[in-house]
Amino acid sequence: MSEAVKRNRRQFGVMSFSQAIHYRLPLAGVVSIFHRISGALMFLLLPFVLYLLDKSITSEISFEYFKGYTSRFPVKLALLVLIWAYLHHFCAGIRYLFADFHIGLDKDSGRKTAAGVFAVSLPLTALVALKLFGVF
Amino acid sequence: MENNNIGPRRLVVGAHYGLMDWLAQRVTAVVMALYTVILLVCFLSGSNFSYEGWAGLFAMQWFKIVTFVAFLSLVYHAWVGMRDIWMDYVTKSVVLRLVCEVATLVWLIGCAGWAAQIIWRA
């Protein structure tokens, strides 16, 4: 049996990175890859978030340090990236939960809900950016 | 169930670990989404951005527990997600994939320990 299955088929692996870059994704695909990238990013920066939580609640002294630390430009930038990642992951995740219930699976509504994810996550990120960098 | 798209003759067998992880990822996502809402409501309805307001929130036992539950959900959720990433991209070497998976687990369990310490120390 097993000999019959093992034919000399061409093996296809995953596409290479350069292939992936040149592949034009539909909007839902863009949501999907950013869902993955944002998830991995938050996974990697988890200790950073824990560090901030630690400083912010341990004591009044550490809270003051937290305030000073998060007022630095690179830290603000890192926070903004994290907040974008969270907002995108959140919105796209809700889209997937609806998809699990077979809501909005066809091509048209899939594109619309994908656009909806960006329409919510990007303005909210911009709002946070304005707040973070002291516009209001 | 006869007309599902896997066909009526196919018997689904096995331990359903894949289904369990898939479902767990959804359930933990909902837990974290609810936690986000709770945190936002408590934070925005509370007086302020001061140390008393913020630390006072985390001083309550129920909030510590809810936070820890949300964090454990995050750990499980991130484990399933990161394992998906390794399974998709690290396909050439089983050993390398195992190393990645073990490193992910170590990373996440370490973070969970630290989170527990932060939540209950203050």
Descriptive account of the structure:
The complex is a heterodimer of chains A (136) and B (122). Chain A has one domain: 3 helical TM bundles of succinate and fumarate reductases. In chain A, 76% of the residues lie in helices and 0% in strands. Chain A has helices spanning 2-5, 17-21, 27-44, 46-58, 60-69, 73-100, 107-132. In chain A, helix 3 packs across helix 6. In chain A, 19% of the residues are buried. The model of chain A has no long low-confidence stretch (mean pLDDT 91). Chain B is mainly α. Chain B has a single domain (18-121), classed as 3 helical TM bundles of succinate and fumarate reductases (Up-down Bundle). Chain B is 78% helix and 0% strand. Chain B contains four helices and no strands. Chain B has helices spanning 17-45, 51-59, 61-89, 94-121. The longest helix of chain B has 29 residues, at 17-45. The model of chain B has no long low-confidence stretch (mean pLDDT 90). Classes of the chains: A mainly alpha (136), B mainly alpha (122). At the A-B interface, helix 3, helix 4 and helix 6 of A face helix 1, helix 2, helix 3 and helix 4 of B.
pLDDT < 50 stretches of chain B: none
Multimerization status: heterodimer
Name the CATH homologous superfamily of chain A: Fumarate reductase/succinate dehydrogenase, transmembrane subunit
Task: Supply Rg of chain B.
Answer: 20 Å
Number of strands of chain A: 0
Please work out how many helical segments of chain A DSSP would assign.
7
* Overall geometry of chain A: extended
The helical percent of chain B reads: over 70%
The helix/strand class of chain B is mainly alpha
Could you give the order of the helices and strands of chain B? HHHH
Write a brief caption for the model:
The complex is a heterodimer of chains A (about 140) and B (about 120). By secondary structure, chain A is mainly alpha-helical. Chain A has helices spanning about 1-5, 15-20, 25-45, 45-60, 60-70, 75-100, 105-130.
